[in-house]
Each structure stands twice: as C-alpha cells, then as structure tokens.
Amino acid sequence: MLHLTREEILTYLQTAFTQDHYTGFNGCRLRYIVSKKQSSSAVVVLGGRTEFIEKYGEFLYDLEDLDCSFYSYDHRGQGLSDRFLEDGRKGYVADFQEYVEDLKIFLEEIVAPHKHDKTVIISHSMGGTIAVRFEQQYPGILDGLILSSPMFSIETAPVPRLIAAFVISCLVRLGFGTRYIFGRKHYEASEMYEGNKVTSSRERFLLNREFVETTPDLVLGGPTNSWVWEAFKATAETLAGAGQGTIPILLLQSGADQVVAAAAQQQFCEKRTNCQMHTVPGALHELLMEEDCYRDKALSLIRSFIKNLGNELSF
Hints:
Number of domains: 1
C-alpha cells in the first residue's frame, strides 16, 4: 500500500530537505538534496538507471525514525542533472568511471563538511555497482554499504551474456554507441503495469509514472549501446575485485529479479569479507518500490543494519 501521494512526497522533500546542485566530474552539474536536520551518521541514497530523487521520497520518509542525515542526488544523464546527447531521453554514459568520480566529489564536497562519525550508502541496482566500485578504489571513506538488487551482472537471457557483450562492443567500436540497444526505445507513457519486470506494486508503479508525466524533464528511455558496454565492463571489474575491502555489507536480493543476475550477487558476497546476503522471495527488481509484504522486510533489515553498524556481534 502506498503511504504517500505524489503531492505529499513533494511537500515532504521540500520541508525536510534542501535542494541544490554541485559540480561533478568534468564539470557535470548534478542535482542533490540534503537533510535539513543533521546528525552524527550520514546515509547517502544512490538510485539506479532511469531513477531520480522524487522516486525515493516515500523511502526516505519511511526511514525518518533513524537518527541519520540523508543525502541523495540524480546521476549524470538522468533526473534533473545534466544530460549529454542531443536526445537527452537516451540512457547514456561515456565511461562508467564518471559515475564513481561523481560520488567521490559528492562525498568530499557535500557530505564530508558536516563531519559525520559514520557514512553509509544505500544503493539500488546500478547505484550498487557505483558504490562498490567507489569503495574498491577509495577505501577508508565509507563505514557500510547496503546493496538493494545490485547490478553485478546484467540479465541478457535468452541471449548468452558473452555473445551479447561481444555484439554490443562491436556496435560501440563501429560508432553506434549513442543508439538505443536493439529492442529498446524512448520512454512511452503508455507502458502498462501488467507484465512489467520491476515491481508488483501497482500503486508505486503508477506513482513513478505520475512523477515522470508531470515533470517531463525526468523522462529517460532505454539504454544506449555505450551505456550497456560500460555496464558490462564495470560489473566485470566489480566481481573481479569482490574480495577487496572489509567494511560491513548488507546485500538484499530480490528473489524474482528478471533484470540483474542473482548468481553474480551470490558470487560477490561469497568472496567478500563481512557481507551478509538476504533474499526476499517473490520480490521483483525494484525491492524498495515493491509491495509492502516484500518492501517491509527490506526496510526492517536496513534499519537493523544501520542501527547496529559497528557492533560486530549484531552484524
């Protein structure tokens, strides 16, 4: 059951947060929010591909009971941050490392000045790849990671992953990097709830569509060949470095995920020290936007992880 309407979410975000822009990697202008209330712990929320701050309004509201300062921002190429193609509706990134450097700058320039004792990232899908790649490259900054349906391998069925990666790499080399991948196109408002692969919550599906339709600048369509190729490379690098790092990680796996591969998540957690994986049976990819029967389990695990962070016996 949806707890807040679109109007209530917008009011909450305007009341509880300050919104601004910061300059990311290569001068990219990125929209962000920060809690007006400040506490000793910082929680940075990183969404996935196509997502934007407003989509996480209900989620942020539901974690208000935690004594934390919350931060979030729109990734480059989506939300109300800068886009780079003439058709800004295309999902594009030139190099996945740009996402990582944007996060580094955000933590250094927006989060760090508040001098929090602990900093935790809650991420979804692509946001999980960004968070882990950051922690692998810049250890010692974060105190914990929460990964919801992390993108450690893209589901390419029925095409074998190696064949899909080879074809995409060839298309990029031939100069077709800014074209939509085969079978994907621009966003269509007529997309139906029935048959969608991301959530079984009709209310949250329709809420997300309402955000996009009332604010057309939030629209993002399918991924380009370049974005998919960069995602292939980044996920491979993430798994290759899975054994690096020791900070606590909570990995929330959606049991019925059809977007990212469950086996890669299992592989990552098995290699990683201090990684705890919980599977939510029946949940689709967008676990944090799912029906309450799935979402409530994720929220409970998130609250427990943050409250017990630093207490190794509890973790």
